[in-house]
Here is the input.
Amino acid sequence: MAGLTRFELAWRDRPQEEAAHFNPAFCGELLARMINEFHKRAGGAMPLAYAFVALPLVLHPGARKALPGTANTAFASWAGENTTMLSTLPDRTLRLRPVTREALMFLAQLDAIKVSPDGVMVGKRPIKLGTKPSATTDDVDAMRRAAGLLGRWFGNQSDSAAVLQTLGVRV
Here is the structure.
């Protein structure tokens, strides 16, 4: 296994916490929540780039705690108040790119999402997201809530390029 990156290791060879939080099914559920809430709010496809900033914002405890309490929060003012956290977002986004890609492929294989030139939308067989699993933790519940909030919040924004630029993504 010499020379493999941590994301190229078999799941059984990864640290237990990493396998729990970075596995395609869990990350796919988080992305599906975001995509579903975005669609409800905006009525269309979510820009694909939003999926790549979602997991770094939702999985990282500090970033998750910095997210606003409601989707009606002004994006520019929130960004101005969270410059320190946002300064590390591009690096986290790059490091989690393989995880996000794998989760998106997992969802696409299940036909839970559809990727088009317009972005990402709910697929023909969406994941059922309404029920709370019996085995969960406060941390996992917070991640699920944050993913839904991001979908609603980003769905409220009229200019996706400005959002991405504010988050440090070059467009």
